## 1
Amino acid sequence: MTKEELLFCLLSNEICGNDLPENFDLTDKTAELYRLSKQHDIAHLIGDALLRNKLLPESKALIAFREQIVLAVYRYERKNAEMERVSAALEEAKIPFIPLKGSVIRSLYPEPWMRTSCDIDILVKKEDYFATGKYLAEKLNYKTEEYGSHDISLYSESSVHIELHYSLIEDRFLDSADKVLNKVWDYALPVNNTKYCLSDEMFYFYHLAHMAKHFQGGGCGIRPFIDLWLLNHKLEFNKSIRDALLEDGGLLKFAKNCEKLSEVWLGKDKHDETTAILQEFILNGGMYGNIENRASVSQGTTKKRHIFSYLWKPYNELKYWYPGLAKHKWLLPFYEIKRWFQIVFGGALSYKFKERRVLNNTEKSKLNKADKLISDLGLKQD
């Protein structure tokens, strides 16, 4: 068996409780398995499955996997404790908020520590955005690191990263999806007078939209597919309502292929042409994607179009990076110039040139494969 096949057998055992196949054989593959699982931040899941099944003798690999399990538990405990502090503070101030992503979905895992995350994501209303950031900084002694296009980055005294969002639109990539995400509070269900949760269909839509955004950035890793499988197997839901929202947001085709790949990895489905290419893309990109994947999926129909689209951003995209532009569209040229300065002096320009070199050196067959994949997933834009 390949290291990829071993990994997905162990994941299926860990998450779904499926038996390992009779031909499961780790011989000479342990180090490769560790590197691959760590690349996707799931080494703790693979390590736990190996330990439960008593498949690892005392070795350096056993120590490495054990360390990843301990680290995952530690990360969970820190973030969970901080989430409780933030929630209590927001409830005390009567600021409406919605927990997002990992803090919600980890309840579907066999154990909550199994769902790792890099930060705590919380959504507040746009009118409460700045006041909430200031309040948390004063109330909980958080350090304000950065004001982004849609969020504020805060850090606790224990270095837990909190992202305070006022919008679920992280970057313009699909107009139809953005229109759905703009209506997020229409799908908010009260937990108490202050805390809300997203309805099933909006949570599912947002999960797919977030996957698609990262996919177009070069890859989203394995973990979102585990989340997707759990959302489809551990919850009661109305599939027709989910699909209707995905159709409205232009993500139904993408969702169907991602759902199928999750069933290939964790269920009994077999690959088709699209999921086989999608798997190659995801495994190559790692948890956060890579420059080769990003260059391949961001290619335009011509090189000139690719370069022009980077140098000059349309108003509907730029306003998400500079919220002040939304009220003063006439300032568009000034914000374009501001963005150019940030590109030149912020290091983005050198990255873009590197991406261009990678794109120029990538085999045409790979670019054609990436282009076909984007089209098959319904993410190709004119």
## 2
Amino acid sequence: MTPAARAKRMSEQKLREQVVRKNAETAQAVVHAVKAAVSSVAARGGGAVLLVVLIVVALIAAIVASPFGIFFSGESASADTVPISAAVAQVNFDFNARLEELQSADTYDDITVDGSTADWAEILAVFAAKVASSDGADATDVATIDADRIDRLKAVFWDMNAITSEVEIIDHPDSDPDDDADDSWTVKTLHITLTPKAAADMPSAYGFTARQTDAMNELLAERAMLEKLVGSLTAVCADAAELMKRFPADLSPERREVVRVACSLVGKVNYFWGGKSLVLGWDSRWGTIQKVWAEGNSTSGTYRPYGLDCSGFVDWVFYNVSGGAYVIGHGGGATMQHTYCTPISWADAIPGDLVFYPADMHVGIVGGRDADGNLLIIHCASSANCVVITNASGFTSVGRPTYYISS
């Protein structure tokens, strides 16, 4: 195991230990049970080790089944589950669709957005307490984030976030009705208001039991850990995990790291025209509502959750791989990124190379090949409104970044 992998494993173990300590009742049970088991081992010999294992497994299972199971939600990489960070992106996708529906209902001279969405750490705490602490027949764990849990998360999100809108029309009359020129005009403004609810509002709204309220408050005491779940770059979706399993044996460490970092955003960051980020790790702006300031797109001038565009995604990947030392294309978009590549044939393409649409209208990163040998591309696609892994359809050229030569 490499030092980096060992450090990651130790960090994850520390996270689990913190979760256990926060659940006081369970933590005490763990301590007492382990002490008793150790005493038993000392008295009866090594055969009692099995007892210790069974006790620890049972206690971990109890924690996973509790609201604190949300801290284990990144452990599964099965095809029908996603990390919490990817579930949050799916909720943001629906939220963006609602915003777009309001903003495209008519033609407006101006659009304003007031307010903000509820804090995601609070949404997750309410979600976990509501779902995993329920005494109802539909209670379930929150360690496995599948389609059903995502639907429940969406329901909590919308219960904690209200969107209202109002159209303001101001008529400016003709400055001189007696002349031959009519210079009157009308200004139509769409005002969108976001009204969030705090976690403290939800126990009464949902009729929480005392146990559910306590669980919610205990989770909120670990707000920083919940925020890390939202911005997790360690847990990856099943498609990304499978892609990395197929790395060629002789693939260089630099290329492996480029694809690994690119995969860390799959399903987690929304598409945003003109979206860039020179931040090491998770950018706290992702998912926040911002105005699309870049021109040249149908979304220009509208509001949506902040994310990355295609070249911004590629910039972020190489910036993070290099520890902030390298920006491929030097911030000039896909066209400039292409100029910092050497043309190669499709047959020579390997993970970490870049692919482009005609006229450099879009860019992606070669992630590898599927079971049939077809190229797979990691890119931030406007059509999917997210970072995705797809086939090479639409891409017409491939280049080898000079980064690999200079690194």
## 3
Amino acid sequence: MRIILASASPRRLEILKNHGIEPLVMPTQADESLPVGIGMEDAVRTLASVKARACYEEVKDDPKYSGYIIIGADTIVWKDEIMGKPFDADDAFRMLDAIRGTSHYVATGVCLIETDTGSETVLCDVTTVWCRDYTDEDIRDYISRVEPYDKAGSYAIQGYFGRYIDHIEGDYENVVGLPYHRIASQLESYS
């Protein structure tokens, strides 16, 4: 299967490789601004589509990309608001404080576009994540590391922060950044 991953995320790339897919990696610059008050599922669907569509616009007229499927994705953490990547240590602390000892949602939108036709399929997956009741010192220790700063919600479930996760309800790979189980059947329909 010929796949273009419209993302620079090493986590998304690893998930695809773990499922036997070796994509071309072609991240794009896309306007990721959202309307005020947008819900989490609409937000990730919109952003996934914007990213995939930007990639499609770059490759659609080049015959060497004929027969490819573009995958664009976006993941957010939701706890009473969209929690994107933290701006700084204070923002990371604020987010990690908000999710401790309680549950929150992780939503990932995925957009698949066929390069030959431009037809688009947009999917969304939501996982509920419960965090342990960690301390302020635990948060300060965690944000002193590099890990939280390029992650939605300021954490990586697959990294050091995994020790603070109590349990999840839903797909683990969705929390990492790409719900492969949601796109597998769609990818099969293209072959």
